[in-house]
Specification:
Helix content: over 70%
Number of strands: 0
Order of helices and strands: HHHHHH
Shape: elongated
């Protein structure tokens, strides 16, 4: 009888890949929306203009680079960052960049920014 090995799910890789794919898809969406957005807004309608999408695009691109910082630190400085801390870091990036900017949580949910600041402070305290 052959014993089947159960593969342990590497949550850090799964969550990191999810964040990466989400940011890449957001970049594609933002570029598409930016091409159709007006340059200036009218006084009667509150729509997103090209500059709004440019800021979102910049944050998504920088988010991809920022999510690589833990692995760069681990390789260059030979520091082992615990996987739970990296997972929490990825969740924070997802909440700040994707939910906050792309889905307008900063404007839709009261105190979203304060919640994220408290969360990041707690994570830094644990780290």
């Amino acid at each position: 009888m052959e014993l089947r090995r159960r593969r342990k799910i590497d949550f850090k890789r799964v969550i990191g890949a999810f964040l990466f794919i989400t940011l890449i898809l957001s970049i594609i969406y933002i570029i598409f929306r930016m091409s159709m957005a007006p340059s200036e807004t009218s006084d009667l309608v509150t729509t997103k203009v090209k500059s709004d999408y440019a800021l979102m695009l910049l944050q998504c691109v920088l988010g991809i680079f920022v999510m690589m910082i833990p692995s760069i630190v681990e390789k260059k400085k030979s520091i082992d960052i615990p996987d739970p801390i990296e997972i929490i870091y990825f969740i924070f990036l997802y909440c700040a960049i994707y939910l906050g900017e792309v889905h307008n949580f900063y404007y839709l949910i009261p105190y979203w920014d304060s919640i994220l600041h408290a969360f990041s402070g707690a994570v830094l305290g644990v780290f």
